[in-house]
Design brief:
Layout lengths: L1 H32 L4 H10 L3 H12 L4 H11 L2 H10 L8 H9 L3 H8 L7 H25 L5 H7 L1 H17 L1 H19 L8 H19 L12
Length: about 240
Amino acid sequence: MNRNVFLEGIRDGLPIGLGYFAVSFSLGILASKAGLNAMQGFIASFFCVASAGENALFTSILEKTTYAQVALITLIVNARYFLMSCALSQKFNPKTKFFHRFIIGFAVTDELFGITIGRNGYINPWYNYGAIFIAIPLWSIGTSLGILAGNILPLRIVSALSVALYGMFIAIIIPPAKQNKIIMTGIIASFILSWCCSVLPYIKNLSGGTRTIILTVLISTILAVIKPIQDFEGDKNE
């Protein structure tokens, strides 16, 4: 059973990995400007699987900020993953071992969170392992290749590759939105309020990560109060 679930994770993680490869390739070019070599870029991407986080990381290195500032900026930009991890923690079987929780928590990204939270029942760690097995290496390899490519490719071409990731994310949220009006309401509200926050005075000056955290807490709290999710009988497989 775990083998089949692992293969399902690889299947669902493959398109995510391909999208990651395209985005991390462009980040690799930024990393090369910051003075990182291919191995350093691979390690940075492997331990910081986040486009906004790595962009902040590489930009900070390029601007020669202190270690403390790099750590703080990366923490703030990636703080939304705390919220995703809290949501996933509610889907674990209480008997799930710590090391399963640790590995899955390490690999929380927007897309991996999306395919995990959308599955029925308790989280089966082997599904996440399958997705992680294919997605994170492609992300890290993409960064390394981007560094090697440097400025050989026109920036316009590299930037165009990142469109695939947005298309993939839309493919993740549309199916559940069609089945659940509450999810659809949340998605529409997220789009509208996100745009509003990008143009409103003072609020627009906040970082994208901070705005995302505020909107996520606000929208999810309101929807949780109005239409709480009923308890479910989780899958006992681990």
